[in-house]
Design brief:
By secondary structure, the protein is α/β, with parallel strands linked by helices. The chain is built from 15 helices and 21 strands.
Length: 560
């Protein structure tokens, strides 16, 4: 049996035996149930897929494909799978709880307002909101991850004769607008063919707006979606907008009249001259050219919250609220927000005090139908991991169909009330069986200088407040291949919005636990049965080998 040495000092080494993980009890029991003779044939495997894994539509071809995927292993036998080969199949990429090969399956022919969109905030920033650099790299990274809404803040350069992208009123460095547009063009449709929306926070006079109009038209050409009518009664569908780019901003007249929408993050960034600008003759001519770019009109109506959330049957628009504005609005206008978002778009952005580029709870927005819950994509943390998990749904295309209850109206025109009590819809049971791969992806002293790691797993549901729950396994000491074999149960009221959140940590007696990987997946798309999930690093990049083996099942609530 191999051994690992940990040097404590020049005269003392700690030696630990390393072991090869063996098929756990659940795996062995399932194997012997479907292969009583000790060898699992293609027909036996097909029966296992249908009866144990819940793959009701599995075919003999599917079972044969699994056999073929194992032929390169020395443990494969032509007559069938032995227990060890069966175990390796369960830990392989062909048996993921949430397959990376899943395709777009939502109806994509409804209006844009019927979908959640993977949305970025200040998409050009590389770090914090105050002093970091602006670059095209975060824009490229976001698009390649599937983000569909990119935000650019447009400002005049120091000479006032060109346009740059930067976070106004801060020490952040600028980046050329043309470079940003080119980066979007080159990377927009690698991860998804569904439309990209560019939201402009515009702080320009009309001459510079004319310059922007030319840049945008020259860069995107026929991929730019424009509409003849300034007001439309309904947004087009993602299906009809495949490989198209849309511009969303306030109509220029509102900026020139000093009625620009100011986000919390930009308070104090505008000087009086920005808000009191009076257009000259040339600028008046430039305004229509810029206006014609706008496919999604944005802006707040004059007055208070009731006016902001008014739903005009003759035109749709986009409204932006800070996370704090939304949270306050939900206390008194919850159903009005839901009604507004059935036809119009609502964008939520981080409050201005999040100078560290942290994020917020996205479920407040999603539960009220907000389509564009804008996140800082350049950092990490649990809320961003949840966002990544949510948009693994629907083939990772960046568009997730909103639950029917957010789109429906009752016989008296009533809409869903997010504050009303909810009944449990499903009971999810998860057994955390084991983990593997850390010894391949990490140095042997990555977690502890003097011994193998002491891993434990935190598992829970992220979702609406009633569904939030976190549980924890025991700690397995001095083991690279931890076997927990522990069961957990979660009662879920809104599975359509629930995200399974898993984090593996290494216990540290001296301080905070070390990070061993994380994963978030949409509950509604998880496959039942004995499945594995890959783990990801803090930035959301998948480890090559680290994964957990789980047993997942869904059952009706107890009172049914």
């Amino acid at each position: 049996m191999p051994k690992q040495n940990f040097k404590v000092c020049w005269c003392w080494r700690r030696i630990f035996k390393t072991r090869v993980v063996e098929p756990p009890r659940d795996v062995a029991n399932a194997f012997h149930r479907f292969a009583p003779n000790g060898t699992m044939t293609v027909d036996d495997l097909l029966k296992f897929l249908i009866e144990h894994q819940g793959e009701k539509n599995a075919t003999k071809e599917d079972a044969q494909a699994i056999f073929d995927s194992l032929k390169h292993l020395n443990i494969f036998h032509r007559r069938g799978l032995h227990l060890e080969a069966f175990f390796r199949y369960l830990l392989g990429d062909i048996n993921l709880a949430h397959p990376t090969s899943s395709k777009v399956h939502d109806d994509m022919k409804s209006p844009l307002s019927h979908y959640f969109l993977f949305t970025g905030h200040n998409s050009y920033l590389t770090g914090n909101q105050v002093s970091s650099s602006s670059s095209i790299e975060p824009i490229k990274d976001a698009l390649l991850r599937g983000v569909r809404v990119i935000e650019l803040d447009l400002w005049p350069n120091s000479k006032g004769n060109d346009v740059e992208v930067r976070h106004g009123g801060t020490l952040t460095s600028p980046v050329d607008l043309q470079k940003c547009l080119q980066a979007i063009k080159e990377n927009a449709f690698h991860a998804s063919e569904y439309p990209v929306v560019i939201t402009f926070e515009d702080h320009l006079n009309a001459n510079l707006q004319k310059m922007v109009a030319k840049m945008v038209i020259d860069t995107f050409g026929d991929t730019l979606y424009r509409t003849e009518a300034e007001n439309v009664e309904q947004f087009p569908s993602p299906e009809s907008l495949k490989k198209r780019v849309l511009i969303s901003t306030k109509p220029p007249k509102e900026y020139l009249e000093g009625n620009a929408e100011v986000s919390e993050s930009e308070m104090g960034a505008k000087c009086p001259s920005d808000l009191e600008h009076v257009p000259d003759e040339d600028e008046e001519k430039a305004v229509p050219q810029y206006r014609q770019l706008i496919a999604i009109h944005a802006g707040k109506l004059k007055g208070g919250l009731d006016n902001w959330l008014s739903d005009d049957p003759k035109k749709v628009r986009r409204l932006s609220l800070s996370e704090q504005e939304l949270e306050n609005a939900t206390k008194t206008h919850g159903t009005k927000i839901v009604r507004f978002t059935q036809r119009n778009l609502l964008r939520v952005f981080p409050k201005g005090t999040r100078v560290d580029s942290s994020n917020y709870n996205p479920f407040v927005g999603w539960m009220h139908g907000a389509q564009m819950v804008a996140f800082n994509m350049q950092g990490h943390g649990k809320h961003l991991w949840i966002m990544h998990g949510m948009f693994k749904a629907n083939g990772g295309c960046g568009y997730v169909k909103k639950p029917d209850f957010l789109l429906q109206r009752g016989p008296n025109d009533e809409v869903f009330d997010p504050s009303a009590p909810l009944n449990v819809k499903t009971v999810m049971r998860v057994k955390v069986i084991l983990g593997e791969g850390w010894h391949q992806d990490f140095h042997h002293t990555a977690f502890d200088r003097y011994s193998p790691p002491d891993f434990y797993t935190r598992i829970g549901i992220a979702g609406v407040p009633e569904d939030k729950d976190v549980k924890q396994t025991s700690t397995i000491e001095d083991e690279w291949l931890p076997v927990w074999d522990e069961d957990f149960e979660f009662q879920i009221r809104v599975p359509e919005l629930a995200v399974l959140r898993i984090q593996v940590l290494e216990y540290d007696t001296a301080g905070r636990p070390d990070f061993g990987g994380q994963a978030c997946f949409p509950v509604k798309e998880l496959r039942s049965g004995i499945r594995n999930i890959p783990l990801f690093d803090k930035k959301g990049n998948k480890y090559k080998h680290v994964r957990l083996l789980l047993s997942i099942s869904f059952e009706p609530p107890y009172d049914l």
